[in-house]
Amino acid sequence: GKNCSCAWLFWWSVLCSASQKATIPVSNDTRDLLLATVSEDSTASQIHQSVSALSALGLPLASQEVVSALKARISKEDNVLAIILALLTASRLSQQAELGDILEEIEDLAARLDDLGGVYLQFEEGLEATALFVSAAYSLSDHVDMEPPLKEDQVIQLVNSIFSKKSWDSLSEAFSVASAAASLSNNHFHVPVIVSAQGPAAVSHSHPFLRLQVTDVLCQPLSSASVLAESASAVSSKSAVLSQALFTLRDGVFELNFMASQPASGYYQFSVAIAGDSRFVANHVELKVKVSTRVAINNMDLSVVDKDQSIGPKTTRVEYPTKAKASFMADGHQNFAMTFQLVDETTGVELTPHQTFVRLHNQKTGQEVVFVAEPDSKNLYKFELDTAERKTEFDSISGTYALYLMVGDATLENPILWNVADVVLKFLDEEAPGTIQAKTLYVPKPEIPHLFREPEKKPPTAVSNTFTALVLSPFLLLLILWFKLGANISNFTLSPSTILFHIGHAATLGLMYVYWTHLNMFQTLKYLAIIGSLTFLAGNRMLAQKAVKRYKKI
Amino acid sequence: MSNNSVISVISRFLEEYASSTPNKLKVIDAYLLYVMMTGALQFLYCLLVGTFPFNSFLSGFISCVGSFILAVCLRIQINPQNKGKFLSISPERAFADFLFAHTVLHLVVINFIG
Fold this sequence. Notes:
The structure holds 2 protein chains of 2 kinds. By secondary structure, chain A is of the alpha+beta class.
């Protein structure tokens, strides 16, 4: 009842005010209904809708009552969306009302934002809440004309979060992002500046201007801004190339003729400052700019050098992009050599690009071998081919190879693939393989069978049996000796302790055998404890009796 | 000449031994000879054929060595000429010690024989 009509009235009043009807007839009942909603018992959303409807319809409302109702609702509901709605409601109240407490909520809400990796700042409730917070905070701050307590870093991180998505889950999410964009581009305090290069950030002789687009978050160009390149330094050498250079505005784009400073090719780090309005936020940016150039090949000399240096080298000069007319021969006695220089086409400065390859392509077999040409200390590139050294790369296949020079780099506008000459290579014929096989790298390799540990070599059974008999033979000798000495058991008394002792002793020996064959140490110790104690007691008794007998005899 | 003296020394020693040593000690001496021969034969096997179950060889050899030592101790303690040095140890006590030590020795030997 009350909820539905409130919401309906809210939307209807918004539509009416949007269509700018100056006076809208409203009955007293409607007005009373809206005023009655402004109380502690309605939700923040209802209060927002009724206050908005009342202000859209131009009806008077008691701002102080609204403020106290809002404060009560904030302490009761205390969730992010309720507080945001309170902020939006407060921005529709009279400026004379005491909105200080509500204004403080902006700071409390900002403290609830989650910092994600120092790049994003958003509520855990999601993107919509974050975007609505931004638009509510700025609309209230504009209304009371007090700067919102958001630091520059926070504003930058909020912008990152709000504009991180390219498509939205719902219409309300899209609305919140649009609303935030509108507040961020048009409020009295903070206007984030977006700087991007038009096209790739690269300059060259044919495109000497560095073009930057400087806009607000709604991509509206900030024509009142002045863009200054505070410094530009080479990334590799860190030497400064430019200082305090002003960009000029042309057709809504800021441009600077960087090539006028004659930078060498490479990468440069620019530090750009945008001034012109005290509201600008994020107005210092770092930019990486590439300077490209065209490369020219000078002094390409091909020669055949004799190994024992008996004949002087014959050098042929070839101009790019022509091909040498005669082909060159390299075999066991002669090496093929190539030298050249790489320079910047316009300035003549020597260059050392990342990729300088020499490719030899056998037209008949399709083989291809690539080498790297290295520069020496004077930046002169050299390449030498010794057939004896390099026969493994070529698989010793003789024939005519087309020689290509490949030059490439990120900062070169004209990468080069130049068929310089034909080279006839001769390897020793006996080493050439019969058929030319494509290098098979990705076939299964031969299986490695597992080698189990081989048991140790045992001596033949006959030998071990012989030695067993041999080792047991001294026992026989012992028995013979004892017999000869007259050892006897005539003193054997048949008392129980003697018998028990001998049984126990025999049991111990038996236990040893059983230990060897079946038991482990713990079990043996257990049995030994039993047998041993019996044997000990019996033996003690027996020996004591023997001792007494001996004393009696003496 | 030296040969003769060595032989004469040995023969005299054997005579003395046969006459003056009590029988009990001779019994033990025979046992000692037996143990020594067993140990020597085991060592010979190891030299000739190899140390294949090395743990077994060690255990057997140590058993012989240990038994020899214990028997020598028994002989010393039983010898009536040494009575003065072993006043608190009667021959029976010596024999009991001998048996106990042998039990421990054999426990270790059997554990190691594998």
